[in-house]
Amino acid sequence: MGKLRKITNGRTAMALFLLCWAAYFTSYIGRLNYSSAMTAMIQEEILTKSQAGFISMVYFFAYGIGQLCNGLLGDRMHPGKMIFTGLSAAALMNLLMGFTGQFLLMSVIWGINGYAQAMIWPPIIRIFAEMLEKERKMKYCVDIVSSQVVGTLASYLIAAGVMWLFGWKAVFAAAAVCLAVMAAVWTVGFGRIEKGEKEGRRIAAPDENGQDCGKESGSRQGCGDEIGGRQNCGDEIGDRRERKPGGAGSRAGREKNFSYVLLHCGLLAVLFPVVIHGMLKDGVTTWVPTYITETFLTSPSFSILMTTVLPVLNLTGAYAAKYIYGKCKEHEVQASAVFFVAATAALCGLWIGKGISIVLTVLLFAVTTAAMMAVNTLFVNMLPLRFEKMGRVSTVSGFLNSAAYLGTAVSTFTIGVMVEKMGWNVTIGSWVVLTAGALAVCVVFRKREIE
């Protein structure tokens, strides 16, 4: 199991955050590029619409399952190595994607890419939980949401420019280059941060007996005091374990198995809201351009342009989550109920006022997706930090993210079927019912402590 050292230096903490931000930002370039290239592949009859949709669904399923599996691994393996592996494998899959035009092979390759991409997020949350102090970890868990927004916009812009110049195959090649470069930057940067923190804590300071104690320069602790953990002098600095394996205070002694965490810590109470938020945050967003085109008879390009407003406005949801979280006395379920109220109201307005105004429609979609970004920040970013003492931060983050993306995968497919069979009114009505159901669950469990 990789052992992580607590960082107390502000500049080093910021460098670590920027490195994690860049890694997650780059991952978006290698996942959303398929959506951009999909239109060209359909026009060139490389894929049919159903085949293109199937490949997208395979990605989300693989990503969701990968979040669960890699979340479990993330608490046992070195997170730096996991992120490097994920970036490298995603780079290879993107490169291969540009060299094939066969449907089944594309499905397999893009599914592997989804699993590889799922090796990035759970380790990042564990890094924040174990390497940063409380105030910084909470701040950075909110601030990293901006990497999704900027990554989404960058993916669309890079894909549009590369496709215009070289065609759809080059879109995947460009993403492969970005991911490969980021993998190299990551392994060098994270290695230096770990090495620098380790060396900084080995600056010797003689104790009263004239012996060296691994005391950090400028620290007020004496030999045997806690330095970044609970160690005595001579213990490895930054490790929370005592010398005796499994002893009091050891990670092994505190760690709970996943079944215990799932059944006794309140996670089942938030499972339904997490699935519904995934359905709304990503699944619904996928169909927004189609809804605008069919409702207001606009061109596909104009609909896509209108949709790019959503990720920018979604960022407000992350910071609203932090504010409401504080007002709700740091209770994630209560805070999430507030945002499900907003989403339910916005979807009701969309359902009742269908076709009235394109600006109002985009605004209501923006309120919905921003509210779901807030729920995502609360449940997937913040809530897992409660499980640091159990050694299950990565596991819980991966499990919740897995549930969200399985909701995305199912909704991406079922929304298309519902629209085709029953129309937009019934489809949006189903969104209202499900969102109201998630709100009801949050209200019922609003006082349930999750820890």
Name its key features:
single chain; 451 residues; mainly alpha; Growth Hormone, Chain: A; 2 domains; two-stranded antiparallel sheet; globular
Structure report:
The chain has 451 residues and is mostly helical. It has two domains: 1-201, MFS general substrate transporter like domains (Growth Hormone, Chain: A), CATH 1.20.1250; 257-451, Growth Hormone, Chain: A (Up-down Bundle). The protein contains 17 helices and two strands. It has helices at residues 10-43, 49-74, 79-97, 103-117, 121-131, 134-143, 145-166, 168-200, 251-254, 258-264, 268-296, 300-307, 309-327, 332-352, 358-382, 393-422, 424-444, and strands at 205-206, 212-213. Strands 1-2 form a two-stranded antiparallel sheet. A hairpin with a 5-residue loop joins strand 1 and strand 2. Helix 1 (10-43) runs antiparallel to helix 5 (121-131), helix 13 crosses helix 14 and helix 13 (309-327) packs across helix 15. The longest helix has 34 residues, at 10-43. The chain starts with 9 loop residues before the first helix and ends in a 7-residue tail after the last helix. Mean pLDDT is 80; it is low at 203-253.
The fraction of residues in strands falls at under 5%
Mean pLDDT level? 80
- Main sheet properties: 2 strands, antiparallel
Number of discrete domains: 2
Topology-level CATH name of the largest domain: Growth Hormone, Chain: A
In order across it, which strands form the biggest sheet? 1-2
Number of strands: 2
H/E topology pattern: HHHHHHHHEEHHHHHHHHH
How helix-rich are the residues, as a percent range?
A: over 70%
